[in-house]
Description:
By secondary structure, the chain is α/β, with parallel strands linked by helices. It is 24% helix and 20% strand. The chain contains eight helices and 13 strands. Strands 1, 2, 3, 4, 5, 6, 8, 9, 11, 12 and 13 form an eleven-stranded mixed β-sheet that branches. The two termini are 30 Å apart.
Amino acid sequence: MSLRRRLTAPLSAGLAAVVTATVLLAGGAALRPGGQEPAGEQDTAARNLGRVDYGVCRGTNPGCYHDWGNFDPAAGGYRVLVYSRTAGPRHAHLGPALAAGLNPPLTAAHAAQSALVKLGADHGFAVDWTEDVAQLNSPGRLFRYHAVIFMSTTRDTLDDPAQTALRQYLRGGGGFVGIHNAFGTEYNWEWYEGLLGGANYYDHGRNQPGTVVTASRRDASTAGLPARWEFTDEWYNLVPFPSQVRVLARIDEATLPDGPTGGSGHPGHGRDHPVSWCQYYDGGRSWVTTLGHAVEAWTDAPMAGDEHFLAHVLGGIESTMGRKPFCR
């Protein structure tokens, strides 16, 4: 089936879920404060279908996923695209801005991009990288990849054609991985906020050590991780707070020497401060983590917990691109 026919085919189970749940919501069900969820019997039905907000089907139910058959690893193996364009402050782990085009030269300063390329080489999937928005401006380009990774992108990093292409890619069953300052991107695009789990960056405290708590070891991205592990990061505070997602890891705020208070005075999230989570979103898969600030997390320089962090990211990538079970 051609891509055009796939995108205009009859309703998939996931899209049908959106329609059905929207009818439930429109049928006069009482809403809880803030309009978050329908009450009564419709509440259970809507939860089972996946939450309907941001205009899409989203949540942990696989019924929100659209499998159009766009991705065939047998045709050329698994492949991901790393996108690290910045239109504002640039993290040190990205190194200098990259030249235009696909796969421009990397140096030792490009720590995060190089680490992701090495993960692919070591684990049997191909990695392309770019900071050229033209490489994302059509769904045809993006459908070559089993996942697109936003690596510490900053602010308005996509133009209109790239935004449209990303939406069409997700709706065609694509995968999105957002790492660290992917949360500082496209602030004024509501659909992208939903892609991040209905969450957004607010502020953070200083880069400081803390203890990460693994929420569950059932997921591909947490399998093999210890129940608690040391790591150093900026520990993002989030407004809005993620919703309708499966939390995979949290930071124990009690272990932060300076506490979670950020530059603007956000008090933190107490005992429930997630740092990684997953969801199905608008037909595709989304796995995100706020972790990954320190350059040392991406290099061979010694840093507590960096091996757990990279294993976590690897599992997130492999599950998002469909190589392993997703969001378990």
